[in-house]
Design goal:
mainly beta; 6-stranded mixed sheet; 4-stranded antiparallel sheet; 0% helix
Length: 113
């Protein structure tokens, strides 16, 4: 059974940084794309980043230049480094095996002064 578990969320001031982790088990992590998504209250879920098995990354315009996705295939872990955080980045962030329904429960990120 595929499981994805996120961690690293929390409360941060505007302009601050956080790094999220997504540990995957039950499948061969090396061969699939991981998507990072977020959901804020009253807003549609948004995909903010995607990282392919070869490390190629894609970002939503809203986070381009501020967020960086990476992965460690030996640890079956994906990361999302978030910098220059803004209040509008506040959301529950989750990782997803791209193209499937396998997602983690999410981790809350709150950006507030």
């Amino acid at each position: 059974q595929v499981q994805l578990v996120e961690s690293g969320g929390g409360l941060v001031h505007p302009g601050g940084s956080l790094q999220l982790s997504c540990v995957v088990s039950g499948d061969d992590f090396r061969f699939y794309t991981i998507a990072w998504r977020r959901q804020a209250p009253g807003r549609q879920r948004e995909e903010v980043a995607r990282i392919r098995p070869d490390g190629t990354t894609f970002y939503a315009d809203s986070v381009q230049g501020r967020f960086a996705a990476s992965r460690d295939n030996a640890k079956s872990t994906a990361y999302l480094r978030m910098s220059s955080l803004k209040p509008e980045d506040t959301a529950v962030y989750s990782c997803n095996r791209f193209g499937t329904s396998f997602s983690g429960q999410g981790t809350q990120v709150t950006v507030s002064s």
